[in-house]
Amino acid sequence: MRKLLVILMMTLMPATALAASRVKDIAVLQSVRDNQLIGYGLVIGLQGTGDGLRNSPFTEQSLRSMLDVLGVPIENGRTRSKNVAAVIVTANLPPFARAGARIDVTVSSLGDATSLSGGTLVMTPMRGANGEIFAVAQGPLIVSGFQASGQAEKVTEGVPTAGRIPNGAIVEREIKADFADIKSLTLQLRNPDFSTAVAVTDAINAFSRDNYKTALAQEQDSRSITIRLPAKVSPTRFFAQIENLTVNTQAPARVVMDERTGTIVIGEDVRVSRVAISHGTLSVRVTEAPEVVQPNPFSRGETAVQPNTFVDVNQSGGTVTTVDGVDLQSLVDGLNRLGVRPTDIIAILQAIKSVGALQADLVMQ
Question: What does the pLDDT look like over 80-112, one tens digit per residue?
Fold first, then answer.
């Protein structure tokens, strides 16, 4: 399979220029967070693609328990349905979610079902880390993947054993939050950086001096910023005032590479010292074409197989190119001049890092 090269290039600006972002986009409130929910349930209505009850006995037990609750006991028998699948249901309960609100859920197969397409999740309690029920999920699944098979071949696209139910869960219990009674706010940067933390603090203090005649923010470390609330102003109103403040953010120079997919993402601040690169590929192809040799007439010989091997050697590349990556554009242009593939670019960047000429973090995924 041919690999795809993806090089993400940010807008090229001078080295002293910075990206302006809103506070709400680079930081989150520490007291405001999601809570993870999980549940075990059954998906019904599948077209023979459900769990094999012999390989997934918990599916049969769950089905029989559900039927007993609904008043349909099964006497001395085993269910043979292939239209049911046991699933794990997960969701994130957003902050300040009230009873009656709806949230999205993700449904994943637990047994050996081949597809959840066309299925419907029956009522499934969603529990938090403390074991209490906070939501109930139910509804038809949306599955993007599909599977088609015959006697000799099977084609699978995407993941047919997982799906989503938009607004599929109803919040039954609220998580208590005393946000209106807090006396200070704590911001946490999504990407820790000392320069960004100081910039956010300065922006908030400049706003608070103009409006409240005092500095209210104080940086704690590379991630956290503490903000005192002004008098007679609610936390919601005050955060709404500061969340749209713009801040010049900074990020470390980084190159992220995924050798499996051939994806390469190069940050704008990546710099490369002047280096000379020679990259060539040597391909060797060995072909076996055995020949059948027949004996001469009346020679009483035997038919034999004579080996016949062809070896083809091809070497390409080998051109020496100088790369002086003073900016991202120079680095990309230099790599493109070599005409190499994504896997070769990954090898080149690793070699440049080993030499010490790549002034960035190299992250392999």
Answer: 778 899 999 999 998 888 899 999 999 999 988
Contact 138, 89 (CB under 8 A): no
Rounded Cα gap, residues 106 and 164, in angstroms? 4
Distance of alpha carbon 103 from alpha carbon 128, whole angstroms: 14
Give 225's pLDDT tier (boundaries 50, 70, 90).
very high
Rounded Cα distance between 26 and 188, Å, is: 8
Q: Which residues pair with 86 in a beta bridge?
A: 42
How many whole angstroms separate alpha carbon 68 and alpha carbon 75? 10
Domains of the chain: 20-32+178-249 (3.30.70), 35-171 (no CATH), 254-364 (no CATH)
CA distance 217 to 186: 9
CB 235 within 8 A of CB 341: no
Give SS3 for 294. coil
